[in-house]
Each structure stands twice: as C-alpha cells, then as structure tokens.
Design goal:
Number of strands of chain A: 2
Shape of chain A: globular
Chains: A mainly alpha (293), B mainly alpha (338), C alpha/beta (234)
Distance between the termini of chain A: 47 Å
Helix content of chain C: 25-40%
Order of helices and strands of chain C: EEEHEEHEHHHHEHEHEEH
Shape of chain C: globular
Number of helices of chain A: 11
Distance between the termini of chain C: 31 Å
Number of strands of chain C: 10
Helix content of chain A: over 70%
Structural class of chain A: mainly alpha
Largest sheet of chain A: 2 strands, antiparallel
Radius of gyration of chain C: 17 Å
Largest sheet of chain C: 6 strands, mixed
Strand order of the largest sheet of chain C: 6-7-8-3-9-10
Oligomer: heterotrimer
Chain lengths: 293, 338, 234
C-alpha cells in the first residue's frame, strides 16, 4: 500500500513537470499553429540561469535561493522565448512548417552553445536542505520535493487560468485560439497575444527547467529531451490549445507511467504510446480539445 | 527539376566511376578509411532521399522516420544473431515486418495532418527509441546495442579488407533507392503525391482518396528506410539505439532542407555532405586553431550542430530551396542573361 | 460624399484570378447592397477590403488609402466586418464576445444602443455563444460590429441558413441598424434588400456590372438577367 501511494504521488509530481512544459506548447500551438521544438531550450535556459543564480550569486542553498532560482530561471526563459518569437517566428508569419523547422534549428543552436560553454556533464543544482526530507502518509514515506512540483504546477495552472479568464489579453488569446483572423477583423493586434503566449510558455518552461534539474539531480544541456517529447504527447492527448486539458493529460500520463515502470522498467513509455494511439483513434482532437472549424 | 536528359550522361559516367574507384590503383577511394566514410554517407544520402519522398514530394512532415530505419536494423540483427532465419531471409523479414509496422503507425498518425502529424509521428518514434534503449524485453541490449554476429553472415560483409564490398553495397543501395524514388515520383502515384502537397482538396475533388495515397507514400518511404537500416547494420557492424533517436530524423530534415527538398538529387547531395561534414566538423573541433579563440566563441564552434543549426535557420528563413534551389536560381540567371 | 471607394481591385488566390478590377463607391449614411450570383466574388471583395486577402488596387476610406494595411489597423480605422457564417467565438460568452469587440469602453451610449437593439443578448450575456441559436449568433455578430463607432459596416449574407422566422428577426434588426450607420450588405434575400437598400451594386465573374439605384429590383426581367433568380414575388 505504501509503495502504491509513493508511486502514485511521484507520478503526479512527474506529471506536474510535464505540465510545466506542455502548457506553453499547447497555448503556442493553439493560438499560432507553431509546433515549438525550441521549447526544450527554454527549459534548459531556465535551468542554467537557475543554476547560475543558486551557485554563483547566492552562496547559501536555502528556500529563498531556490525560489529566486525558479523566478529568475522562469523570467530568463520567458524573455528568451519572447526574443525567439519577435526575431524569428514573427518573420515566418503563417508559414507553419517553416516555423516548426526554424524552431528545430534554434533548439540545435542553443544546445550547441550551452554544450560548448558548459559541456554535457550534469552539474549539481544546490537545493535547500529540506529537499531530502520525507512526508509520512499512513506508512508511506514520500519525498517532500514531489509536493513542491505539484504545488508549483498548481500555482501556474491557477495563474494561467485566471489570466486567460479575467484579463483582456487572456480574452484575446482565448478568442485567437478559436479564430485568429476574426480577432484581427475586430481591430485587435493579435501579435501582442503571440508574444504573450511565448513569454508565458517560456516562463513556465523555465520554472520547469529548475524543477527538472532538482528532480534529476543536476543541470545539463541534455535534460530537456524527454520532457519535450512528453510535453508533445501531453498536448496531443490533452487537446491542442487547452491548458486544463494539458493538466489532466499530464497527470494521467505521469501516474500511468510510474505504475507501469514499477511493474516492469521501460513499460511506462510503451503504455503511454498505446494511450496516445488510442486517443488518436477514438478522439483525435484530444481529451478537452475542440474540433477546429 | 534537373531534366533526365541532362543528368543521364553525367550519371552514366559518375556512377561507374564511383563503383570502379576502389579498384583503380591509388586514389582516395582505394583506402578503407574513406571507403567506410563514403559507405555511411551514401546510406545517409539514400535515407535522406526516402525522407524527401515523404516531406518534399508528399508534404508530410514526419518526425518518426528514424523508427523504421532502426526497426529494419534491429529486426535483422535479432533474426540473424538468434538463428531465427538465414541472413538473406532475415533481411526480407526485417523489411516486411517494418512495412507492416509502418502501415499500422501510418494509419493512426495520418488521422491527423500538418503539424499534429509531425507531433504524433515524433511520439511514436520516441517510444520506439525508448523501447530499444531501455532494453525492453531484454532483447535489445539497451544503450550498448547489438553487434552483428560475424559468423552468421557471408565473409564479404566483414572486416577491413572487405570494406570495398560494403562500399559497393552502399553505393548500390543508393542507386537502387534513387531509381525506385525516381520511378515512384514520375509515376501517376507520384503526381498524386505532389498534388497532395500542393492542394489536397483538388485531389479529393478528383475522386482520389488523399489518405490512401499519403499512407502509400509513408509506407514506401518506411520500407526503403528499413532496407537502408539493414545495410547500415552491415556497414557499421552493429545496431545501436542512436540510430533510433529523433536526432536521426532531425538530421534527415537538415539534409533535405540544406540540399533542397524540391529535388531528388538535392536530398542525396544534402545527405552525403551532411554525413561527411559532421565527421569533418568533429575533427575541426579538436583542431588547435580554436585554442587561441576565447571559449565563449570556441566552445559553440567546436559543436558541429552549432554551424549546421545556424545554416539550417538561414536556409529556412532566407533560401527555402537549399542547395539545389540555389543551383537552379543561378542557372536561371545564366540562361536569362543569354 | 463616399465613405468607401474601391478602384480596380484585383485578387488572386493560389494562381486563380478571382477579382478582375472591381470598382464601386459606397455613399455616406446609406445601405448599399452588393448583389450577384454565387461565386462571383462578393465575399472575396469584402475580405479584400478587410485586408484578409492580399489584393492590388485602390481602397479608400473617407479619401485615405487603406490598401495593404494590416487587418487590425483597417478595423481600427473604422470598418466593421460581419462575416459569412458569423464567426462568433463559440467558447466565449456573449458578454465576452462583445467585450472583445469593444474598443472604447467609455462609449456608454453605443453600448446602450446595442442593448436597445438586441435586448435578448443582455439576458443571455453569460451564455456561451456556441450554444445560441443561429439567429442569436447572427445578432452577436452584428452587435459586435455596432459596439464601436464605425465609418462603415461590411455585412456578408446575414440571413444565410436561417429559418424564415429568424430571417424576419435579423431583417428587422438590420432595418433598425440601417438608420444608424453606413452599410455594405451582401445578401441573396431580395425582399430584405428592397426594404433597406438605397444603392445596388451587381457583380458578375469578378467584375462590377451594374451600379445604381434599387428601382430595377422591382423589374423581374432585370432581376432574372442580372442575378439569375426569379424576383417576381415580393
């Protein structure tokens, strides 16, 4: 029973990390039709800035250092994402395949630059002392960091939802996901919304980068790989353009993957792909996605 | 297109010359080292061509092509090493099973289109990569890969002295794939592929089923990729998980875009150059010339993907035709000057 | 005085030439009907004016050129667009649809006007627009154009696909709107056109073939040759 609970909560924690990557991917795709392969580099940029802050700027690894690393990592990744959108993506307006291709190029270049500067070895990210504590639920001892991931994901989910629901730019983004041309025909500059989703997506991915580094015990230019792939899978299963859909799908995938991997190592990825194939066959628009007109 | 009538005499000289070069006294290609490099490059050229059939000719942006390449490779090595089938039957079985796999994955993925299709194929391929690299079921030997058991295949496929045979087989594979692709793209099915890329609705209006032709293109490309995978197994002597990773598909994309997706020869040249260049750029990274440059510049420069990535971004944004596009542009200028 | 003037407008989409030099004017404070058979380029003309299709030619709003401008700037200049098939945001509420369109929130008079014209939209403010009936959706689309002070409203087939009872409702609404603003109306429903239009433009095969008053609409033979429909019943 305690193993069952441990795996379940670890799965939710993992799902939370997937969500941080997928939420941005989903909004960017939903609003702009851009398949963003550079999203992994946003995560990596966030992780390296977080590492720089907690090891070079601060010299104590306490809670505040870690929060600072998350915020700064998120901001840096958000700004980087904003630059990518302004300088590169916006020049390829409505050329969706080229936009996807160019993000592949950006991912390659960012990976190469970071590898050239720092090498591909894992560098330890300082974490607060309480990271190694466990919380006892019943007889299960659950590492406390799992709850941190879940908490951060929930905060970003709520912040995201609130922004989309109650702000003017959120209204524009929701309308734009449905019908970009009509938003423009109402006299609204949709490009501001494009920049906003890139910044928000980059921010979430950057925060995710710091958390992923904490989870996998270090920072390297290669940490984003599997998270990006899982981010894509989450977006397809959850429904393109739906942030709650991404959250739901991320949780389902995180949990299923952990249980399956416990049953037999490596089985998790296999099950997830079967799930993906099933969703595509039975509900191609994803769990909470809408069929586009 | 480079018209057949212009390219025929060129190819008629070039191909026999390449085939003969390992035997023609002392020339660069009479050394096993370069023979090996070129054998790998020819195979990537062929693989890029199969990818071009999908992407350039049918307009399907697949991120899962590496899966079929690796599938052919792994199935063949498993059948051969475990004495399931004699080597040549193993090759046929590997290609046949991969083709069936492609039908299944293609049918599921093609329920979507455009960018979603890219995402979905990526997910399938990544699953394949994980299955291979995690040693799922204990068959694939995980990250270490599987060495081909030399006793179970004819001797000409093995050893440094026999590199020329591998060179010939690879070159032959490239020529074969080129002719199959040429035949398909010039056939009536190929015209439908091109029409699908340009305007899917028009194809549907003509009463042809777009989905079937897309699947056909997907399966043919996958089948050829699996055969190239089998040959790569012979050339490299082992099957390894890196052949299944999405990096391979991304490399294919680079090859096709840099070479120019609009032509067959562009993809082949792109594949060959990329393959050779990524080995050569690796050498450059170890060169002493970079030592005097500060690390902030020399670091990225020592990574082959840095230059290739920048070049790729440049081509996508400013020169969509790639190498072959530039060639036609220049030729057009020369012609219009006359 | 003309609000909108279009001269020699050409549109090509995917190699096919759709508009071959369209020219016409829309006079101030009037309803101008843009008529013609299906596929002659009426919707394309409206989209080209909105900057939704690339075009060549002159498009002037109150004498200044808007050709080649970005769609959102054209809209800000004072052209509202009610597209064919309405294109309301179905996942947004009625209120959100209108809020999105509102450029000047302080213009209370405008908002009151819209509320007076479409009281039903106020009672259904919190409902998702996608769950409204076709007629109500059309009201949202028209209201979206009216919440701003515009120079002209382009309306594309507002009664298309509506049940007869709803056609009357939308027609009444348009009749009331007609007094408030300049309108360029694409419409197949001739009785509606006869009721509210002061000017008529007829297009055929990507060109304007008639521009003038609405009197001819009462001549069944003219209607039959120009529009290919029998215009006998009124």
């Amino acid at each position: 029973m305690d193993t069952f609970l441990l795996i379940g909560i670890t799965g939710i924690g993992l799902g939370a990390l997937y969500f941080l990557v997928a939420s941005g991917l989903s909004l960017i795709y939903g609003l702009m039709g851009v398949l963003n392969f550079a999203h992994g580099s946003f995560l990596t940029v966030g992780a390296f800035v977080g590492l720089w802050f907690s090891s070079q700027v601060m010299h104590v690894s306490n809670t505040w250092t870690f929060i600072g690393a998350m915020v700064l990592g998120g901001l840096a990744a958000g700004l980087f994402a904003l630059l990518v959108e302004r300088i590169v993506i916006s020049r390829l307006y409505e050329r969706h395949i080229d936009q996807a291709l160019v993000t592949v190029g950006i991912a390659l270049v960012v990976g190469a630059v970071l590898a050239g500067w720092f090498g591909n070895d894992l560098r330890l990210l300082p974490t607060p002392a309480w990271f190694i504590n466990t919380v006892t639920i019943g007889s299960a001892h659950i590492p406390v960091d799992r709850f941190l991931y879940i908490g951060v994901a929930l905060i970003l989910l709520f912040a995201n939802t609130a922004l989309l629901r109650f702000s003017r730019i959120g209204l524009v983004i929701r309308a734009g996901v449905e019908n970009r041309q009509m938003v423009a025909a109402l006299g609204i500059n949709v490009r501001l919304a494009f920049s906003t989703v890139f910044f928000l997506g980059g921010f979430a991915a950057g925060v995710g980068g710091v958390l992923v580094s904490a989870y996998s015990n270090g920072v390297s230019p290669l940490i984003a790989g599997s998270y990006l792939i899982y981010g894509f899978i989450v977006v397809v299963i959850g429904g393109m353009g739906s942030v709650p859909g991404s959250f739901l799908a991320a949780m389902i995938i995180g949990i299923i993957k952990q249980y399956a991997n416990y049953y037999s190592p490596g089985l998790g990825d296999f099950v997830v792909v079967f799930l993906l194939a099933g969703v595509l066959l039975l509900r191609p628009q994803g769990l909470l996605g809408k069929v586009k007109a | 297109m480079l018209r057949w009538k212009y390219s025929r005499p060129l190819l008629a000289i070039l191909i026999p010359l390449l085939f003969a070069s390992p035997l023609l006294g002392n020339n660069p290609l009479s050394h096993p080292g370069l023979q090996q490099t070129m054998a790998v490059a020819f195979l990537y050229g062929a693989l890029a061509l199969t990818y071009d059939l999908l992407f350039g000719f049918t307009g399907l942006l697949s991120f899962g092509h590496a899966l079929f390449f690796a599938s052919g490779m792994y199935l063949a090595v498993l059948f051969i090493n475990h004495d399931v089938l004699v080597w040549w039957l193993a090759v046929i079985a590997a290609v046949a099973i991969t083709t069936i796999l492609a039908i299944l994955i293609g049918s599921a993925s093609l329920r979507t289109g455009g960018i979603t299709f890219a995402m979905v194929t990526l997910a399938f391929a990544e699953a394949g990569h994980v299955v291979i690299s995690r040693n799922f079921g204990g068959l694939t030997n995980g990250e270490n890969g599987i060495a081909l058991n030399a006793d179970k295949v004819p001797g000409i496929f093995i050893g440094v002295f026999n590199t020329k045979y591998l060179f010939w087989i690879s070159l032959g594979t490239l020529v074969l794939v080129y002719f199959i692709t040429w035949w398909i793209t010039e056939s009536s099915a190929g015209r439908v592929f091109a029409a699908l890329r340009d305007n899917e609705t028009r194809v549907a209006v003509l009463g042809l089923k777009p989905a079937r032709f897309k699947l056909l293109s997907f399966v043919i490309a996958a089948g050829m990729a699996s055969f190239i995978g089998v040959v790569m197994l012979m050339v490299s002597g082992s099957a390894a998980p890196r052949f299944a990773s999405s990096d391979v598909t991304i490399a294919l994309l680079l090859m096709v875009i840099l070479g120019g997706a609009i032509t067959r020869w562009g993809a082949v040249i792109g594949g060959i150059i990329y393959s050779v260049a990524s080995t050569r750029l690796q050498d450059l990274s170890q060169s002493t010339a970079l030592h005097s440059v500060p690390k902030i510049i020399s670091g990225p420069l020592s990574e082959p993907t840095f230059i290739l990535g920048l070049l790729f971004i440049f081509v996508v944004m400013f020169a969509p035709g790639g190498l072959s596009g530039a060639y036609y542009y220049l030729r057009l200028k020369v012609i219009s000057k006359k | 005085m003309n609000v909108l003037s279009v001269k020699d407008l050409h549109v090509k989409i995917n190699e096919s030439h759709i508009l071959h030099g369209v020219s016409f004017e829309v006079p101030t404070h009037s309803v101008t009907a843009l008529l013609g058979r299906n596929g002659v380029g009426k919707s394309t003309t409206l989209k080209a004016i909105m900057g939704l299709y690339p075009s060549q030619g002159v498009i002037e709003l109150n004498g200044s050129s808007i050709a080649g401008k970005l769609t959102y700037k054209i809209a800000q200049d004072g052209i509202a667009y009610v597209p064919e098939d309405r294109e309301i945001f179905s996942s947004l509420t009625v209120k959100e649809n209108l809020a999105l369109a509102t450029r000047d929130e302080k213009d209370i008079a405008r908002q009151e006007l819209v509320q007076a014209l479409f009281p039903e939209l106020t009672t259904r403010a919190a409902q998702r627009a996608g769950t409204l009936s076709g007629g109500q959706q059309q009201m949202v689309a028209i209201a979206r154009a009216l919440v701003n002070k515009n120079e002209i409203i382009l309306i594309d087939e507002p009664t298309k696909g509506l049940a007869p009872k709803l056609v009357t409702e939308v027609a009444d609404a348009l009749g009331r709107v007609a007094g408030e603003t300049t309108m360029l109306l694409v419409e197949q429903n001739l009785p509606l056109v006869k009721r509210i239009a002061q000017h008529v433009i007829v297009m055929d095969q990507g060109r304007v073939v008639f521009q003038g008053g609405p009197e001819n609409l009462h001549d069944p033979e003219w209607v039959h040759t120009m529009l290919g429909v029998s215009g006998g019943h009124n």
